[in-house]
Design a protein that fits this description.
By secondary structure, this protein is of the alpha/beta class. It has 18 helices and 23 strands. Strands 1, 2, 3, 4, 5, 11, 13, 14, 15, 16, 17 and 18 form a 12-stranded mixed sheet that branches. A 5-stranded mixed sheet has the order 20-21-19-22-23, sandwiched between helices. Strands 7-6-8-9 form a 4-stranded parallel sheet, sandwiched between helices. Helix 10 runs antiparallel to helix 11 (about 295-305) and helix 12 (about 390-430) packs antiparallel against helix 13. The longest helix has about 40 residues, at about 390-430. The chain is globular, with a radius of gyration of 28 Å. The chain starts with a strand and ends with a strand. The model is unreliable at about 275 (pLDDT under 50).
Length: about 625
């Protein structure tokens, strides 16, 4: 059976653990296909396998990449493969669902009654998610049950990710609201809430309580009160449906897990910090070692010693064989590591869609994860490994995927050129009159190596650039903005110059996404980012995506007059796009802008500039949007 799971979240691991435990005595094998929210081609390999008839069933879990789910389910219907939904309902299919209300009600009784909280904040999940809507409904019912008016609480748009949750709660705290409890839609959002309350100087749980949902491993590790959906039980229910013993929808009851973040067995220090993630540093060290390899064979020799350091005990490197681009892709197993057994192979070619030749399938008895190895010249093969056990495992395998893809791409292109040069050398040895051609071939080989090294350097530069770029808008990301602001602040402090900042926020952008869809929302963000870029004309200026629908223009050396002029130009440039928005001001997509100027020689730190611009932005929103406001206006 195939399982389409979201590679960016933790719950599939525990779900698959319950599923595999129930299927262990049977002949069923599970193959998990990871998807990611911004990549629409992740399901292609799964579709090929469904078309070839390799799967007898398809499990679909909740996806942030809706297009991958649609493609996979459509293919399953086309090839008559039954579909089972987990955490979501697929028309005509058995569904395994969690009852969020039971656990959420128990948690709210603990927080609102036992904890005596009267000013709670709720961080709602992703728009359109059935789980998010059910959890919010349970929160509202809990307020009514404890006679707390909704106006005494706050419901914030945060999504299910850490950074948006931090920004939403941080803004609420800056606006002056002082909650006594934060109830998050999931554990990731709860981590963002912990970041925000720590920044504001609150202690957990002495000053306020914080709760999550999903009971991820990190919740237990740091003492976060959460709600257990009993994912292993959901996995077992899926197995029962596959085995034919359960043909009706199954609802698994959730339960509250009370811990230190709500005062249960509270220590004075409160919630423990997150552990250090040292295995990711090991991946970076391995990447540096791999770049010194002169052939794919050397890479295969190096990898087995590093895999245990990365916590990977089952691993196969499958390399695609060169050949015509049309027709079925063939591959060979270059390396197989299974526990203490390490084998290097030059196996007979087999169809890449099989993942592994039948003789080697026993190396992965139950569940495997698949990642493609992609470089600038295309796809070179696959990483096949055991299912990741936690968030750190996923981070490590994703980083290893990038490193191997780039190194194999460079080496295989270099190998192709080397083979050509060697053929010319042999021809020169046979024919004396071709000495000149042989010399040219050797010179070409040297040039090829130099070109390959230059490409590798360029690839490293490109990696650094991509790590600083927002994928949707193609402008600088938050990380790059913070780094640039710190540098500009230090330089301006030395030179006695001002620093200007314009903070822009798309008006009614959530409504835009609801009306026109997230793909249209991404296209709108790119156009707005381009318009803002045209407003910042100096090479020293920076346009960045600050987060969500917020973009900023950082203007080193700009005083109040110049900063105000750029802010006005930015608002006008977005308005001039004439992008239709039924619920926006003037029926168009517009932005509100707040600007501020700081003198680093007189200010404590750069955060004062951000706060001033954010306060001005808040006033621009308050005074009707589609305008810019400066300090004190």
């Amino acid at each position: 059976m195939a399982a389409l799971v979201d590679g960016g979240v933790d719950f599939p691991r525990r779900l698959l653990a319950g599923l595999c435990a129930r299927l262990a005595p049977t002949q069923w094998q599970v193959v998990a296909y990871n998807t990611w929210r911004d990549r629409l081609h992740d399901a292609d390999l799964l579709v090929q396998a469904l078309e070839a008839g390799h799967f007898a069933a398809l499990i679909v879990t909740q996806q942030r990449n809706a297009e991958s789910e649609r493609v996979a389910v459509t293919a399953a219907r086309k090839y008559h493969v039954p579909v089972l939904g987990v955490g979501r309902r697929v028309p005509g299919a058995v569904a395994v669902m969690a009852d969020n209300h039971v656990g959420m009600s128990a948690l709210l009784d603990h927080v609102l009654a036992d904890g005596k909280a009267r000013r709670p904040v709720f961080l709602r999940g992703n728009p359109g998610s059935p789980d998010a809507e059910e959890r919010e409904d349970a929160f509202v019912q809990g307020l009514r049950r404890h006679d707390i008016p909704l106006c005494a609480a706050r419901v914030l748009d945060s999504g299910f990710d850490r950074d948006p949750a931090f920004r939403a709660l941080n803004r609420c705290l800056q606006d002056g609201f002082r909650p006594d409890a934060v109830v998050a839609g999931n554990d990731e959002a709860a981590l963002g809430a912990l970041d925000a309350v720590a920044l504001a100087g609150f202690r957990v749980p002495q000053d306020l309580s914080v709760t999550g949902f999903d009971d991820s491993p990190i919740a237990e590790l740091i003492g976060l009160t959460s709600i257990d959906q009993d994912l292993p039980a959901q996995g077992r229910a899926v197995a029962e449906a596959l085995l034919g013993t359960g043909r009706r929808d199954v609802v698994v009851v959730s339960a509250a897990r009370l811990r230190r973040s709500t005062g249960v067995e509270c220590a004075e220090s409160g919630v423990r910090p997150l552990p250090h993630r040292d295995r990711l540093a090991q991946v970076h060290d391995l990447h540096r070692v791999l770049t010194t390899c002169s052939s794919v064979a050397e890479v295969i020799d190096v990898l087995p010693a590093w895999l245990p350091r990365l916590g990977i005990d089952r691993f196969a490197l499958v390399l695609r064989l060169p050949g015509p681009t049309s027709g079925e892709a063939l591959a060979r197993v270059a390396l197989l590591c299974s526990g203490d057994v390490v084998q290097t192979h030059s196996s007979a070619p087999f169809p890449e869609r099989l993942l592994l030749p039948p003789a080697l399938e026993d190396a992965f008895p139950q569940a495997v994860a698949v990642r493609t190895l992609v470089g600038p010249s295309g796809c070179h093969g696959l990483m096949v490994h055991g299912i990741e056990q936690d968030e750190q495992d996923r981070t490590v395998t994703a980083a290893l995927q990038v490193a191997l893809g780039q190194v194999v791409d460079t080496l295989q292109r270099e190998q192709e050129l080397t083979h050509r040069a060697e053929a010319l050398g042999r021809h020169a040895e046979r024919l004396e009159e071709l000495v000149a051609e042989r010399t040219a071939a050797l010179e070409a080989e040297v040039a090829t190596r130099q070109a390959a090294e230059a490409r590798l350097r360029k690839a490293n530069v490109e990696l650094e650039r991509l790590s600083s770029m927002d994928e949707v808008t193609q402008v600088a990301n938050r990380r790059a903005f913070n780094r640039f602001l710190e540098s500009a602040w230090d330089r301006a402090s030395r030179d006695g110059e001002p620093v200007g900042l314009v903070m822009c926020d798309l008006d009614a952008f959530k409504a835009y996404n609801d009306l026109y869809g997230h793909l249209a929302g991404d296209h709108c963000l790119r156009q707005v980012a381009a318009a803002l870029t045209s407003s910042a004309r100096r090479s020293s200026d920076l346009v960045a995506r600050y987060g969500g629908e917020e973009l900023v223009l950082l203007l080193p050396g700009a005083g109040p007059e110049a900063t105000a002029r750029v802010a006005e130009a930015a608002v006008a440039a977005v308005r001039a796009l004439r992008l239709e928005h039924e619920r926006g001001p003037r029926g168009l997509v517009t932005v509100s802008a707040g600007w501020a100027v700081a003198n680093p020689a007189l200010e404590d730190d750069e955060q004062s500039l951000i706060r001033a611009a954010d306060t001005a932005l808040y006033r621009a929103k308050e005074h009707g949007r589609d305008r810019c406001v400066g300090p004190g206006r």
